[in-house]
Amino acid sequence: MIADNHNHFVECGDAVAMARAGERAGLAEMALTEHVHHLTDALERIPALRRIPPEGPALSQEAYVTEVGRAQAAVGIRVGVGIETEFMPDSEATARGLAAFLADTRNAWDVVIGSVHLLADEVFLEDVDDADPDGAWRDYGERLLASIRSEAYDVIGHPTRLAVVGGPVPERAHTLMDELALAAVRHDVALEVNAVDLRAQPALVHRLISCSAARGAVLSLGSDAHAPDRAAAALAAPAALRDAGVSEVATFVGGGRRMMPLGPPRHLDTTKPRH
Ligand SMILES: [Zn+2]
Ligand SMILES: [Zn+2]
């Protein structure tokens, strides 16, 4: 049983179906954490967010919270309401707008994920220059470390994502995982084990897990599912966590963090007597 702290529904258009799929797959808790650029309230205040291609129709914060409430009412597991926001420090106006939006809405969210999707010159991770992986990872690493130091987020989203979408993975990427773990401890932020990245780049995600275990950094699990058929993908993570000696993961309520024991491996469940 795990808490899955990172999921979306604007792309598939059905929060209830996402929650039902998560419950059916065996999640103990689930959070819906839509991108900040899918909220009209944020788009109105932060024009730069309009440059990020939407995955579906934007909705007001009120409508978003209502949709998550409908999902919560449809299932027997807790469904948290969160947000995945952008770390965009290059433009002062954008950074200030994002910080102000977060400050004004903080009480609305169970969990705030801070993610780096853009590098220098607003280049998306998907579009980085394959010819200079070291340069891309230096930029990515500096942004991730700065996002940790900001202490603005509960979770640093997918700190391994550049390995999935951005070409060759240099040695620098592996050394970065230890730097992130150290910084996460110092600034009391959880690092995300992202199921998309775990599937595509297991070696680097295992490195993140082992460094976090060694340094004592808190880990948060996220499926990052955008459709019901990918819900609960984070259930693939506990095996790797147990191998590294990690026995608990983070869950969030009202912005407060608590630790949830991973419990015994799932295959033991099948030995239970049937009723
Ligand atoms: Zn993301
Ligand atoms: Zn996401």
TrEMBL record:
Recorded GO MF terms: histidinol-phosphatase activity
GO CC, any one term: cytoplasm
SUPFAM superfamilies reported for this sequence: PHP domain-like
Entry-linked Gene3D superfamilies: Metal-dependent hydrolases
Superkingdom to which the source organism belongs: Bacteria
Ranges of residues in domain PHP: 18-194
The EC number(s) this enzyme carries: 3.1.3.15
Keywords for the protein's UniProt record, in alphabetical order: Amino-acid biosynthesis, Histidine biosynthesis, Hydrolase
Transmembrane segments: none
Entry keyword Ion transport: no
Protein name: Histidinol-phosphatase
UniProt organism field: Conexibacter woesei (strain DSM 14684 / CCUG 47730 / CIP 108061 / JCM 11494 / NBRC 100937 / ID131577)
